[in-house]
Amino acid sequence: MPAVRHRLLAAAVTLPLLTGALGACGYGSEAKKDTAAKVAPKGPKTDGLDQVRIGLFGNTTHATPLVGLQKGLFQKELGGTQVKSSTFNAGPAEIEALNSGAIDIGWIGPSPAINGYAKSHGKSLKIISGSASGGVSLVVNPKKIKGLGDLKGKKIATPQLGNTQDVALLNFLADKGYKVDAASGKGDVTVQRTDNKVTPTAFEQGSIDGAWVPEPTASKLVAAGGKSILDEKTLWKDGKFVITNVIVSQKFLKEHPKAVEAVLRGSVKTNAWIRSHPAEAKKTLNDKLGSADVAGKSLPDNVIDPAFKNVDITDDPLAATLQEEADHAVKAGLLKKPDLRGIYDLTLLNKVLKSQGKQPVDDAGLGS
């Protein structure tokens, strides 16, 4: 049974209204602005713009924008138009920034993209590319949990009520015959909602027995003595499911298609570089994570190595899995059924892919 993926935030509202409160995997809510350009703007301005503003998270699942910024690949494509980045720690804040015009393009998880589109009745954003797949695991204390049949009576953490990993775990438990109340997290297994930045400490102190979490949190738990007993990839066809998308304001897409295309060229070239230079890409990613405008601290080798390996970089938005994620959230009672028709516009991405001799990607019938 495919489980749902990357962050459906449940805020202080009743469960039937959770469509208005879906978030993203993150570690807080405020954005940090990138003030340093690795490659200076040079040449004509794209679409006459002084700058293009992009949003991202300081996670290994956002390797594309982090590496692309560090290598200056987006800036090279934008010429004289300066690329400016803001680092967010939660999906709602990035969606709010997109809606307010504070950013133009963002890397974000599927759940906040679904939520932002549904709340605006299809008028706020478009998903224009994929970026990453996978990177989620169930990590447990091996002294307390020996295997997947040993979860009854245990406490398993997820990042937040209704977030993507939360729904994934609820679906998995239901499929295995465990009964859990989605709202309270109480039942045969206790689903304990714990912020990702707190989870490693809670794990080490023994207040949780395991966690269903994204990278790099999963690898942090393994480094602390945990054991991964399930990679969520195994629950999906071909081991693929969307964890990070690229979204754009519909207004910006309409008014500045050349700038959007330039950013997508940078994204596709960055992904190709990451795949062909994995060792250097991992170091570049960790260097960017250590910069003051992102996480401010690089990850140790025993965390960055598996965290980087567990995430698959892709241009394909894996559109069919987005629909499945939404369907499973509805099934769990955490989301009103959204109309996702038109959420994708892959026209410019496929133009870029064709120009580089790559195969086009599909929108699973959810395109413009």
General description of the model:
- There is one protein chain.
- This protein has 368 residues and is α/β, with parallel strands linked by helices.
- 35% of the residues lie in helices and 17% in strands.
- It has a seven-stranded mixed β-sheet with strand order 1-3-2-4-11-5-12, with helices on both faces. A five-stranded mixed β-sheet has the order 8-7-9-6-10, sandwiched between helices.
- Residues 1-29 have low confidence and may be disordered.
Q: Strands across the major sheet, in which order?
A: 1-3-2-4-11-5-12
Helicity range:
25-40%
Given as residue ranges, the uncertain stretches (5+ residues, pLDDT < 50) are 1-29
The description of the largest β-sheet is:
7 strands, mixed
Question: Rg from C-alpha positions?
Answer: 19 Å
Shape: globular
Give a count of the beta strands, DSSP E runs of length 2 or more: 12
Give the number of helices. Answer: 13
Task: Quote the distance from N terminus to C terminus.
Answer: 29 Å
Order of helices and strands: EEHHEHEHEEEHEHEHEEHHHHEHH
Q: Calculate the mean pLDDT score and round it.
A: 88
State which percent range the strand residues make up. Answer: 15-25%
Structural class: alpha/beta
